[in-house]
């Protein structure tokens, strides 16, 4: 008689003879996808593996590639905007909770989430909702709202949790005195050109605060590929889907990858070399 041994997430009978075990394992391997085989082989060798199995450094995306991947997720893989936004916002909130645990914060764990008018702002609204569920006390500054139903719904969800919405952005000193950290969800990877009002003044104020700035995907005001040495210098950055080229210039303390939704086909097509997320985590720390 034998017993069962987990192998590639399945079970193999052992104690029934080595040759029989090897035959059973070979049969199982033939039924496992190529990505799973590479990941399992890397784990068995004790190596840190990426989803493509190349062992190459993670890829930093240019703006055009980031847009292409987004469109493929919508058009070829049938994801919806709100679906990806929910997954992204959750990963942001989890990464923030790991970096700034409740027990480490003063000021009643108050957090300000600054949201822009596009998808990055939507990620921020989702993030604020999850932070509230995690026990933080978020407030939202959302100066340029959109009439789209998705963003109205996200706003209502926050309001129903008694998350305050600020009518204006206080001065830098008041922000530093009143909040533990500030989430920058103003602009994402589609940002181009000059910062238009009222966001120029908002970024100027955020540059002057003394509490940590935490940026979602791209620090607001940065060129998506070239960065901005004179712009915001966040302590925390969470890259979504894959890091953008500007993240190579990030010199802060925490860099996470989030948005655990990229299909293997996209990972392989664009040679993203994404790291393997641990367990059931929606995010992973890069440095």
Helices and strands, with pairings:
Elements: E1 3-7, E2 10-14, H1 18-30, H2 34-44, H3 63-75, H4 81-99, E3 110-115, H5 119-133, E4 137-141, H6 149-160, E5 165-166, H7 172-178, E6 181-185, H8 199-208, E7 213-216, E8 236-240, E9 254-258, H9 264-269, E10 283-285
Parallel strand pairs: 3-4, 3-6, 4-5, 6-7, 7-8, 8-9
Antiparallel strand pairs: 1-2, 9-10
Helix pairs in contact: 4-5, 5-6
Q: How would you describe what is shown here?
A:
With 287 residues, the protein is of the alpha/beta class. It is built from nine helices and ten strands. It has helices at 18-30, 34-44, 63-75, 81-99, 119-133, 149-160, 172-178, 199-208, 264-269; strands at 3-7, 10-14, 110-115, 137-141, 165-166, 181-185, 213-216, 236-240, 254-258, 283-285. The strands form two sheets. It has an eight-stranded mixed sheet, sandwiched between helices. Strands 1-2 form a two-stranded antiparallel ribbon. α4 packs across α5 and α5 packs parallel to α6 (149-160). The protein is globular.
Main sheet specs? 8 strands, mixed
Q: Tell me the strand order in the biggest sheet.
A: 5-4-3-6-7-8-9-10
Radius of gyration (CA) equals 22 Å
Count of runs of 4 or more consecutive helical residues: 9
- The helix content is 25-40%
């Amino acid at each position: 008689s034998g017993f069962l041994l987990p192998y590639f997430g399945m079970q193999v009978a052992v104690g029934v003879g080595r040759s029989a075990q090897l035959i059973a394992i070979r049969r199982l391997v033939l039924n496992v996808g190529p990505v799973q085989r590479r990941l399992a082989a890397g784990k068995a060798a004790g190596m840190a593996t990426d989803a493509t199995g190349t062992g190459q450094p993670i890829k930093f995306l240019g703006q055009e590639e980031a847009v292409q991947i987004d469109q493929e997720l919508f058009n070829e893989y049938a994801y919806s905007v709100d679906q990806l936004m929910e997954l992204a916002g959750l990963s942001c909130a989890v990464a923030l909770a790991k970096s700034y645990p409740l027990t480490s914060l003063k000021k009643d764990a108050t957090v300000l989430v600054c949201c822009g008018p596009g998808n990055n702002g939507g990620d921020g609204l989702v993030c604020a909702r999850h932070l509230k569920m995690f026990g933080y006390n978020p407030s939202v500054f959302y100066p340029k709202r959109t009439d789209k139903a998705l963003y109205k719904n996200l706003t209502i969800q926050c309001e129903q949790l008694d998350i305050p919405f600020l009518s204006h952005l206080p001065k830098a000193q008041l922000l530093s005195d009143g909040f533990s950290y500030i989430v920058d969800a103003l602009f994402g990877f589609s940002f181009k050109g000059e910062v238009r009002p009222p966001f120029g003044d908002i970024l100027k104020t955020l540059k002057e605060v003394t509490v940590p700035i935490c940026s979602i995907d791209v620090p607001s005001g940065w060129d998506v590929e070239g960065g901005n040495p004179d712009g915001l210098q966040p302590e925390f950055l969470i890259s979504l889907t894959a890091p953008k080229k500007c993240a190579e210039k990030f010199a802060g303390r925490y860099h996470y990858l989030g948005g655990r939704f990229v299909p293997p086909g996209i990972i392989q097509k664009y040679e993203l070399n994404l790291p393997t997320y641990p367990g059931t985590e929606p995010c992973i720390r890069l440095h």
